[in-house]
Write a structure and sequence with these properties.
CATH class of the largest domain: Mainly Alpha
Structural class: mainly alpha
Order of helices and strands: HHHHHHHHHHHHHHHHHHHHHHHHHHHHH
Distance between the termini: 89 Å
GO cellular component, one term: plasma membrane
Number of helices: 29
Region (Disordered): 558-577
GO molecular function, one term: urea transmembrane transporter activity
Membrane topology: Multi-pass membrane protein
Subcellular location: Membrane
Number of domains: 2
Helix content: over 70%
């Protein structure tokens, strides 16, 4: 147990032990169920999304053959749908598997720090999103902003940084989800790894970003309903009759298996060295994952201007409850039931490899709900991983089409050309992600290892990117050099610490907690120092108006043809002057509103960080308090109420907010069906 509590478990147990553990546990579900969920349900959802895309085209005029619709949904997505998409973007399979993992290892502090490591930067992104809307209203990707400000070299550096971020993120998702699906159904882990992206690629290929928003909504609603089911089912288990009874069982578990680094060895304390170190890694890594993930910017660009700040603030706060509540309940269910015949591994405890592969959640679900629990976990893991794969795929697709093809291969690309390369990007990255995750699996890399070390690679761009959007003094040299120096610094500190502390550099040593903490902190903070020093040595004073001089929005092929052939359109410069005048008028009209929303976003960002990282947890940490039965009961009740609120926000608010468009689509669909029926009747009508 001490081994489990002090390290991140990446590669700590030989493959032979993994094989023995796997053979000792019979999957709760038949292998056929795994294929039905991954293949049949995956393609069924894809079919529904393709059908929805067709219906929206016929009834609401949303044509995904046009780039602005495919990549940014015509920048018209409302607050409710954007909120569910924001929650979905962070509702990774690793959020559910990882929060239960750290809860099992560190107690109540683990899920709390997992949640606190996500919500502040989601809310902070409201500030970045509205700043981008203000400064570059026609942008499609973060990289377009970088290119305009820093030129080709800066653009290439950010392309590399963003692609690294997306590759690490999707590998982290697939490793955890595939391991869980394999454990639940006996499905081969590599089959799961390749089949999971298949349906996603199909509906993203056809529907673009709007299909991603719709699947985000559906998947997130289903996941939160299942989580709410677990909040009830946990306390109807005969061995866990109430929250107070769970407290008694966890108190006993802490006495039998004390947690190294926790106050009194208890699971019921926020005074946990391992948990707070994980929290530091997690919040820095997540800032990197959000800020360097072009998918978050694509969703911000797709949202209507008035929806960005409310959606990201609401989504960030709503999201907090999911890892906090689910991680606490399911990890404590595992600890409570591990010594009973209900638990899949009985009479032994879980091995560190099983824990590191994210199997705490599925094993706990089986223990409290049998095969129904296994089906529920299989469903939410599938929903989570496919939803976030969709976001990652559209993100990389935008880089390939806009930032590589349009910029360096065909500067005169038409709307159709960009769409074609967007499709190529979707297929390519879906296949590449499966291959890369397979390579990591056979390299004995698991969820625990990637969960801890990913910040080393994702964090170098945090400060340079934030400065690019918010600080006009950052110079071109600083922007290009600082993330590269930061990446080199982070990797050097990470590997150097691993060697100094363990005497070797291996998967096991680089997965230790302290090397990952040191490497992540160095990777995240050093670029900020480098950028400030270089910028003041060679200062800049960027004019934000430069961003609006380049027209980024693409005309459709029809519009392009018209502009070159119609003398009324193409023959006079007055029309171009009028267009530019219109753009300036639109910008001036929105400027005051954007600044108002920016102030709100900044205030909420600070409040969320101080609330979740200072005012709430640190007094409990410093007091070395071990939760009493009443305090623990209140802790769990608040988390349950919060997660039910999240379910209503992501499930019903988008319907309420989008009721007008839903009615529009319904009427349009009714008219379309009537038209088709009338057309069919006219064919069979007898001539006079």
């Amino acid at each position: 147990m001490a081994l489990r509590n002090r390290r991140c478990f990446g590669g700590t147990v030989k493959t032979q032990i993994l094989a023995e553990a796997s053979s000792a546990i019979e999957p709760a579900l038949p292998q056929a169920v795994g294929y039905v969920v991954v293949v049949v349900i995956g393609f069924l959802i894809a079919f529904v999304m393709v059908l929805a895309t067709y219906v929206l085209k016929k009834t609401a005029g949303e044509d995904n053959r046009k780039t602005e619709m495919f990549m940014t949904a015509n920048r018209s997505v409302r607050t409710g749908l954007t909120t569910s998409a924001v929650v979905s973007s962070w509702l990774w399979s690793t959020a559910m598997l990882g929060s239960t993992l750290v809860g099992y290892n560190f107690g109540v502090a683990g899920p709390f720090w997992f949640a606190a490591g996500c919500s502040p930067m989601i809310v902070f992104f409201a500030l970045l999103g509205i700043a981008c809307k203000l400064r570059v209203p026609e942008a499609h990707t973060l990289l377009e902003i970088v290119r305009i400000r820093y030129g080709t070299l800066g653009h290439i550096v950010w392309i590399v940084l963003c692609l690294i971020n997306n590759i690490i993120a999707i590998a982290n998702m697939l490793l955890g989800a595939s391991s869980a699906i394999a454990a639940l159904t006996g499905m081969h882990i590599i089959a799961a790894t390749f089949l999971l992206p298949a349906g996603v690629v199909l509906y993203t290929f056809v529907g673009g970003i709007k299909a991603t928003f719709l699947t985000d909504y559906f998947h997130t609603f289903v996941i939160t309903v299942v989580i709410c089911f677990f909040t009830i089912k946990t306390f109807t288990t005969p061995e866990i009759t109430s929250i107070g009874h769970m407290w008694e069982l966890i108190t006993t578990a802490g006495a039998q298996h004390p947690v190294q680094g926790n106050q009194g060895g208890s699971y019921l304390t926020m005074t946990s060295k391992g948990a707070i170190l994980f929290g530091i890694i997690h919040i820095l890594a997540n800032f990197g994952l959000v800020i360097m993930d072009t998918g978050f910017f694509v969703k911000a660009f797709s949202a209507a201007p008035q929806a960005v700040v409310p959606a990201y603030i609401t989504g960030g706060i709503a999201y907090f409850a999911i890892p906090w509540c689910l991680g606490t309940l399911m990890s404590f269910s595992a600890l409570s039931l591990e010594g009973t015949a209900r638990f899949p591994t009985f009479p032994r405890r879980m091995t560190s490899t099983e824990v590191s592969n994210g199997l705490v959640l599925p094993y706990a679900a089986i223990a409290i709900a049998g095969k129904g629990g296994a089906v529920a976990v299989l469903l939410i893991v599938f929903m989570a991983v496919t939803s976030t794969i969709s976001a990652q795929v559209i993100s990389v697709s935008s880089i390939i089409s806009f930032d590589i093809y349009r910029q360096y291969i065909n500067k005169n690309a038409t709307d159709g050309d960009v769409i074609r390369w967007s499709h190529i990007g979707v297929v390519f990255f879906g296949l590449f992600s499966a291959c890369f995750s397979t390579a990591l699996h056979y390299g004995n890399v698991d969820l625990g290892w990637t969960l801890y070390m990913l910040g080393v690679l994702t964090c170098p761009g945090i400060f340079p990117t934030v400065f690019t959007i918010l600080w006009k003094k950052q110079s071109k040299t600083a922007a290009i050099v600082s993330p590269l120096l930061g990446l080199a610094t982070g990797i050097a500190v990470w590997l150097g610490s691993a060697h100094a502390l363990t005497g070797a550099i291996s998967v096991a040593s680089t997965g230790e907690t302290l090397p990952c903490v040191y490497g992540t902190v160095a990777s995240a903070l050093s670029p900020g120092l480098y950028s400030v020093v270089i910028s003041y040595a060679r200062p800049d004073n960027y004019d934000w108006a430069e961003f609006r001089k380049e027209k980024l929005a693409l005309d459709s092929d029809t519009d392009s043809a018209l502009s070159t052939t119609d003398p009324v359109v193409a023959g006079t410069s007055g029309s171009l002057d009028e267009e530019e005048a219109g753009r300036r008028a639109s910008y001036e009209a929105n400027k005051a509103k954007f600044r108002y929303w920016g102030k709100i976003a900044a205030a909420w960002s600070l409040a969320t960080f101080f609330g979740h990282w200072v005012l709430w947890p640190l007094p409990i940490y410093a007091s070395k308090y071990v939760f009493s039965k009443n305090f623990f009961s209140a802790w769990v009740v608040v988390s349950i109420i919060w997660v039910w609120g999240t379910m209503f926000v992501v499930g019903f608010y988008p319907i309420l907010d989008g009721r007008k468009q839903i009615l529009q689509v319904w009427r349009g669909l009714d008219n379309f069906v009537r038209h088709m029926l009338d057309k069919e009747r006219s064919k069979h009508r007898c001539p006079l």
